[in-house]
Amino acid sequence: MTRTRGRAAALGVLVAVLGQLAVLVAVGLLVAHPPGHWWDPGENGLVSWLAAHRTPALTTASAWLSALAFTPAVVAVTAAAAALLLIRHRWRAAVLLAGAVALQAALFVTAAHLVDRARPDVVRLDGALPTSSFPSGHVGAATALYGGLGLLALHLLRGRWRVLPVLLCALAWTVPVLVAASRLYRGMHHPTDVVAGLLNGAAALWVVAHALPARAPRTPVVPATPRPAALVHNPATVDDALLARLTAVLAAHGHGPVRQLPGDAEDCGRAAAARALADGARLVAACGGDGTVTACAETLAGTGATLLVVPCGTGNLLARNLGLPTDPETALAAALTGRTRRIDLMRVEGDGLPARAAATMAGMGLDAAVMADTGRALKRRLGWPAYLIAGARHLTDRRFPLTVTVDGAPPVHRQVRTAIVGNVGTLQGGVRLLPDAAPDDGLLDLVLVQPHGPRGWWRALLSLLTGTRPPGPDAPLEHFRGRRIELAAERAHPRECDGDPVDEGRTLTLTARPDALLVRVPATPYEAPSAGNAEHAAPAAGWAEREVA
C-alpha cells in the first residue's frame, strides 16, 4: 500500500511538472509566434520608452538588481541557504528552496529553446545571452530563490508576533519584482517574458512544496495503567480551552487522572507544583512563560519527578533551547513521545535577594531594565518583540563599573552595559548570545555587553549575527565560563532572573546546580511536517544529551 501511494505521488509530481512546461511553452508560442499574426501584444512600446529614458543612476541600479539573479549569485545564495537549513535540521525547507530553483531552471531552459523568442529591438545593456527571451530566466530564478526565502521566513519564524516574518516575506518577494523591472529597463525582455518568469518560479515553488512527503505523526504508546499527571498553568496566559486541549493530549498518551492547578501570581506556581507532588504526580507540565517553568523546576528539582515544558509565555527560552516547538499542544506531544534528560539549574542570590533557582538566564544592567520597562499588555499583544521596543529606549543607558569573579580567580574590572549569565545560550530568532552554553554541562556562561558608542553597538550586533568573538577586554562582547560567577557593582542596578525583574542590588552570585532536574525533550529536534510551518530551536551545539534510563 505504501509503495502504491509513493508511485501515485511520484506520478502526480511528474504530471504537474509536464503540465507546467506545456502551459509555459504554449503561452510562449502564442505571444512569440501568433498564428496568422492576428494578435500583436504591442510590448515593444514599453521597452523602447524605458530605453529612451535611461539615466546613469538607474542603469547602475538595474545592473545591481540583475546581478542578484545571475547564475553565480543564485547558485551561491541557494547553496548557502540550503546548507544553513540543513545544519538547523530543516531538510524539507532546504529541499524546497534548492528543488524550486533547479526545477524552474530546467523548465526555463527547455521552454526558451522551444519558443525561441527574439529579444526586444532596442540597445540591450547585457549583450547577447545564449538563451532566448521567453521566459525570463533571471526573474524565474529570483522568484524561486528569494520568493522561497520569503515563504520560509513567514513559516519558520511563526509565533505570536507576525509583523517581522510578514515584513521579511514582503521584502523577499519585492526582489523578483525589482529584478523584472531591471530586465525590462535593460532591454533584455518583453513584459510577457518577465510575467512568465514570475509565474514559472512561483509554480516551481508550489510543485516542490506539494511533492515533499509529509512527516508521519508519531503514534503515542498508551500504557495499560494510566499514570497521574498535573498541569500547573498560569491563568493569565492559559485559558480554559487550551487547558482542555492540553489535558486531552496527556490523556491520549496514557496519563491520568490529570490535575489542573492554577499558579499563584505571587509564587508563579511553586505551591501548585508542590501540591501536584503531594498528590502523587510524577509528571508535571508547566504551562506558562519562563517564570512558571522555573517555579515548577525549582520545586521538582531533586524529587525524581519529571518536568514537561509547555511554552505559553513571551520568551519561552527553555523550550527553545530544549528543541521544543512553540505551539503548546505540539510541544507537549513532542515531549511525551520524546526522552527524559537531566539538565542543570542555577542558584541565584545577592544583596536583598533570597536564594532562588533559575533555568535559563539571569543578569544585571540593561537587560534587567528592559524587562522591568516592558508592560504586560504590550507583551500579550506583541510577544517577545515587545522587549525590542523597551530596549530601544535603553540603548543610551550609561555603562557602569562591574567586578567579575569566576570560580574564585582574581577579579576582573570592566565598564559594562549589562552582564548576563546563562544556563542556555539561544535567544529568540535563533540568536546565540552564549555560543558555548549547554543546559547539561555543569557550567555557567557569562557575557559582558560593553559596547562604546554607535560603532561599538554595531560591532556587538555583528558579533552576535556572525558568531565571531573579538578578543580582549575592549571587545563589545566578552565571555567567561565557570561553576560560580560573582558580579559586584559600586551601586544598585536593575536585576532579572529568567526574564522576571527582581529587586535592584549591587551584587549577583550564580552557582551551577549540575543534573538538578529531569525534563522531557523531543526524540529529535522538532521539524514541521511540511516546508517549515512552526518555529523551533535545536538543542545547543555540544549538548551531551545524557538520556535517563
Provide a count of the helices.
17
Gap between N and C termini: 36 Å
Radius of gyration: 28 Å
**Oligomeric grouping of the chains:** single chain
Strand content: 15-25%
Counting DSSP E segments of at least 2 residues, the number of strands comes to 14
Low-confidence stretches: 526-546
The helix content, as a percent range, equals 40-55%
Overall structural class, as computed from helix and strand content, comes to: alpha+beta
Q: What integer is the average pLDDT?
A: 81
Shape, per Cα inertia axes: globular
Largest sheet features: 14 strands, mixed
Q: Can you offer a commentary on this structure?
A:
The protein is an alpha+beta fold and 549 residues long. It is 44% helix and 21% strand. Strands 1, 2, 3, 4, 5, 6, 7, 8, 9, 10, 11, 12, 13 and 14 form a 14-stranded mixed β-sheet that branches. A hairpin with a 2-residue loop joins strand 13 and strand 14. Helix 4 packs antiparallel against helix 5, helix 5 (91-115) packs antiparallel against helix 8 and helix 7 runs antiparallel to helix 8 (191-211). The longest helix is centred in the first third of the chain and has 31 residues, at 2-32. The chain starts with a helix and ends in a 28-residue tail after the last strand. 46% of the residues are buried. Residues 526-546 have low confidence and may be disordered.
Question: Tags for this entry?
Answer:
549 residues, alpha+beta, 14-stranded mixed sheet, 17 helices, 44% helix, 21% strand
Kindly summarize this structure in a few lines:
44% of the residues lie in helices and 21% in strands. The chain has helices spanning 2-32, 44-52, 56-67, 71-87, 91-115, 137-156, 163-185, 191-211, 240-252, 270-278, 290-300, 317-321, 328-336, 366-373, 376-382, 386-394, 453-466, and strands spanning 227-233, 255-262, 283-288, 306-311, 339-350, 353-358, 361-365, 400-406, 412-416, 418-422, 444-449, 477-482, 484-497, 500-521. The longest helix is centred in the N-terminal third of the chain and has 31 residues, at 2-32.
